[in-house]
Amino acid sequence: MDVDEDILREIDREIQEIKSRIGIDRKTLNEVFDRPTLLAFGKLISDRIIEYVDFPISTGKEANVFRALSPRGKLIAVKVYRIATSNFRRMIYYIQGDPRFSTMERNKREIVHQWVRKEFKNLEILNKLGIPAPSPIRAWKNILVMSYIGDEYTPAPLLRNVKLKRPRKVYDEIMGYIERMYLDGDLVHSDLSEYNILYFDETPYLIDLAQAVVTEHPMAMVFLWRDIKNMVNYFRKYDIEGDAEKIFDEIIKKGGEVA
Ligand SMILES: Nc1ncnc2c1ncn2[C@@H]1O[C@H](COP(=O)(O)OP(=O)(O)O)[C@@H](O)[C@H]1O
Ligand SMILES: [Mg+2]
């Protein structure tokens, strides 16, 4: 039918227009951006959140992160979850017990959308607490837009790839973040390691917040312990002998006093 073909041609034109705003190679474009993802990009472009996608920063197990530009010329980071390679069972596991979300959702695409909104809300909490982390800008479908950590030449390096001049200070800061997140934000990062901390302007920034759980999650204590332990282990290479058990107990004790 004529009308349908017109609409299809219109959508194709729109998709071509969206693709022209993505300055990355065809292979990545086709691997990461299925049609629904391209249309989600289209919405972010027409809402004037994204002007242009620059280049890939990272290709992870579930998501690709790109550097992009806002219409005002500001650098931003865009994290795109690939529906096809997402681990839904793991996502559901970390969503359960979170009063902000329903776990009734069993549609795979919708679970990923929840996951993106969860990362957004968790970043909001960190921002409110003044804990260095990307500022969330927009969560839409499987795309999270946030502030970019880095300078115009390179994104900030991971903690694991820098040689700290004042490791004790950074160690104390990170332990302080863990404590404040727990006591004031009711949140446990749950995947904290030298791979999920960026180091920029002599400041550690926490990233990758989707799996962070609220303290009422059945595994919150186990995750809190693991986060602390990971950090204590990492800082051994700087000859810092942290006492994970003591740090954990103190946080829990303070939490008890607050409650
Ligand atoms: N806001 C950001 N600014 C700059 N680089 C970022 C930002 N967010 C993520 N990255 C880069 O992308 C990589 C992957 O991001 P992350 O959120 O950890 O996703 P993954 O689930 O793939 O581990 C990070 O290691 C970091 O190098
Ligand atoms: Mg990560």
Descriptive overview:
The chain has 259 residues and is an alpha+beta fold. The protein has two domains: 14-147, Phosphorylase Kinase, domain 1, CATH 3.30.200; 159-258, Orthogonal Bundle (Transferase(Phosphotransferase), domain 1), CATH 1.10.510. The chain is built from eight helices and nine strands. It has helices at residues 2-20, 26-32, 35-46, 88-95, 108-129, 167-185, 220-235, 244-258; strands at 52-59, 63-69, 75-81, 136-140, 143-147, 187-188, 197-200, 203-206, 213-214. The strands form three sheets. A five-stranded antiparallel sheet has the order 1-2-3-5-4, sandwiched between helices. A two-stranded antiparallel sheet has the order 6-9. The chain has a two-stranded antiparallel ribbon with strand order 7-8. Strand 1 and strand 2 form a beta hairpin. Helix 6 (167-185) packs antiparallel against helix 7. It is globular. The mean pLDDT is 94. Bound molecules: adenosine-5'-diphosphate (ADP) and magnesium ion (MG).
SSE diagram, text form:
Blueprint: H1 2-20, H2 26-32, H3 35-46, E1 52-59, E2 63-69, E3 75-81, H4 88-95, H5 108-129, E4 136-140, E5 143-147, H6 167-185, E6 187-188, E7 197-200, E8 203-206, E9 213-214, H7 220-235, H8 244-258
Antiparallel strand pairs: 1-2, 2-3, 3-5, 4-5, 6-9, 7-8
The chain binds adenosine-5'-diphosphate (ADP) and magnesium ion.
Residues 57-58, 60, 62-63, 65, 77, 79, 134, 146, 148-150, 155-156, 158, 196, 207-208 line the site of adenosine-5'-diphosphate.
